[in-house]
Amino acid sequence: MGREAAACHRRGRSSIVDVSKAFTDEEAAEPTPVVPARAPLPVGVPNYVTARGLSRLQAELDALRAERAEDPAQRAALAQRRAQLEQRIASAELVAPPEERDTVRFGATVTVEGAMGVRRYRIVGVDEADAARGDVAFVSPLARALLGRKVGDAVRLRAPRGEEELEILAVDYPSDA
Q1: Could you give the CA distance from residue 42 to residue 31 in angstroms, rounded to a whole number?
Q2: Exposure string for 123-133, b = 16+ CB within 10 A, e = fewer
Q3: Which residue from 55, 59, 58, 38 is spatially nearest to 137, judged by alpha carbons?
Q4: Residues 110, 170: contact at Cβ < 8 Å?
Q5: DSSP character for 98?
Q6: Torsion angle, CA of 163/169/175/177, rounded to 10 degrees?
Q7: Region 109-172: CATH code
Q8: pTM of the entire predicted model
Q9: What string of pLDDT tens digits covers the 177 residues of the chain?
Q10: Helix, coil or strand: residue 30
């Protein structure tokens, strides 16, 4: 029981009037949509993307352009999301796979082995990053540790669970990178 309702109860009055305030039109109104910010790109860092990443951004924009909203607040939120995405696409710098494919570069899929076993990571743009899929942003500590290395190289990575040494087992460049 809330403080006001408890005070009314102690004074022997009903708290029905106090409780009814919870069901006013103010409460029934839909909240203003919150537009989540896109993944941050560090200041001064180019917005590198893979071909697949750029294609996904463009498909996301096409879907947003097709989306309609009746509510003015939802229309504004939709317009804000489109503007953010248009800006990100405009600043995108498409990175083609390198000619030298034995070195870890942007777009590479890297197979490593460490204390946690064998894992695969793909180094991608900020908007493409998805840890659950093993896609890591090129600005992440893991990607920075791997970039420029070759098969057989070992890198030390500081992680929240402690320092880990990773050996690079393979470097691949997917055809749709």
Answers
A1: 31
A2: bbbbbbbeeee
A3: 38
A4: yes
A5: P
A6: 10
A7: 3.10.50.30
A8: 0.74
A9: 444 444 444 444 443 444 444 545 555 556 666 667 788 888 999 999 999 999 999 999 999 999 988 889 899 999 999 999 999 999 999 999 888 889 999 999 999 999 889 999 999 999 999 999 999 999 999 999 999 999 999 999 987 788 999 999 999 998 765
A10: coil
**Rounded CA gap, 81 and 117, in Å?**
39
- Give the DSSP letter of residue 131: G
Which H helix or E strand runs over 122?
strand 117-124
Give the count of beta carbons closer than 10 Å to the beta carbon of residue 139: 17
Measuring CA to CA, how many Å separate 12 from each of 5, 8, 144, 150, 175?
Answer: 11, 6, 68, 79, 77
Nearest to 128 by CA among 65, 38, 45: 38
**Residue ranges matching CATH 3.10.50.30 in the chain:** 109-172
**In Å, what is the CA distance from 120 to each residue of 85, 131, 167?**
29, 11, 12
Task: Give the pairing of strands 154-159 and 47-49.
Answer: unpaired
User: What totals of helices (H) and strands (E) does the chain contain, helices first?
Assistant: 6, 7
Are 89 and 54 in contact by the 8 Å Cβ rule? The answer is: yes
Dihedral sign for Cα atoms in the order 101, 106, 110, 114: positive
